[in-house]
Amino acid sequence: MGQSGETVELKIADTAASGGVRQQVWRFASRAECLRCHNPWSGPPLAFNFEQLDQTRVGNEMERLTREGFLAAHPGRGTLPSLVDPFDRGAPLEVRARSWLHANCASCHRSGAGGAVAAYFNLDRPLSDSRLVAIQPARGTFGIDDGRIIAPGEPWRSIVNYRISTEGSGPRNFFSVKESKAEFGGGGWLVV
Q1: Same structural domain for residues 22 and 44?
Q2: Residues whose CB is less than 8 angstroms from the CB of residue 48 and which lie 6 or more positions away in sequence, other chains included
Q3: Could you list the residue range(s) of the whole structural domain that residue 20 is in?
Q4: DSSP 66-93
Q5: Distance between terminal CA atoms of the chain?
Q6: pLDDT band at 64, cuts 50/70/90?
Q7: Which burial class, exposed, middle or buried, applies to 9 when counting CB atoms under 10 A from its CB (0-12, 13-18, 19+)?
Q8: Spatial separation of the C-alpha atoms in residues 190 and 183, rounded to whole Å
Q9: Does a structural domain hold residue 140?
């Protein structure tokens, strides 16, 4: 791997794609890019987070992993915000959207975690203190006129909506663009 990382195009078997195969562009970050988020200030490993594991829908993974010695007991247990399934239409739309953003974006976009944008996607941060709503992006607008990180009631001006709705996802690129487009790509959740 070179100092600037590497981008490759992969062919992925996908029964929903034309011909049963889709192209997936994947970026392997350079060591310096990795260290932007994987650093001593970002807390636990940047994969799952405690809020995702502290659920009772299928059994509590945080309890199981702690009991089996894979995780240390979380000191803030009981004070963590409750994430909801983003696809559970019985939950409030704002909580569903913020849970999805927390799980997919907050590993980097939180205080001290190395995200290049000073916005906080973690659910435990009040929305009023998140630097998300009606804030002009510091790193460009992708050509969107008067773009805002989240433009309340105007998803066409919301950078978050653009990022979710296109293949131009964050550097982690872990979330499914297809699933997120179907659920959130229309921007209806951006009514804050």
Answers
A1: no
A2: 61
A3: 1-37
A4: HHTTSSPPPTTTTSSPPP--TT-TTS-H
A5: 42
A6: confident
A7: exposed
A8: 12
A9: yes
Task: Kindly state whether residues 104 and 9 are assigned to the same domain.
Answer: no
CA dist 124 and 130 (Å) reads 10
pLDDT in tens, 3-62: 888 889 999 898 988 999 998 888 888 888 777 767 776 665 666 777 777 776 666 778
Please indicate, yes or no, whether residues 30 and 87 belong to a single structural domain of this protein: no
65 lies in the same domain as 104: yes
- What is the token pair recorded at 159? 């950078």
Pair 12, 96 in one domain: no
Residue type, 66: T
In a domain, 6, yes or no: yes
Q: State both tokens at 72.
A: 């240390």
Give the HSE-up count for residue 18: Cα atoms under 13 Å, Cβ half-sphere: 1
Residues 6+ apart with CB under 8 A from 86: 96, 97, 99, 100, 103, 183, 184
Instruction: Note if the pTM is more than 0.90.
Output: no
d(CA 26, CA 6): 8
177-184 helix and 93-105 helix, angle to the nearest 10 degrees: 160
Cα Rg of the chain (Å, integer) = 18
Q: Are 112 and 133 in contact (CB under 8 A)?
A: no
In the chain, how many domains are there?
2
189 part of a folded domain: no
Residue 179 lies in a domain: yes
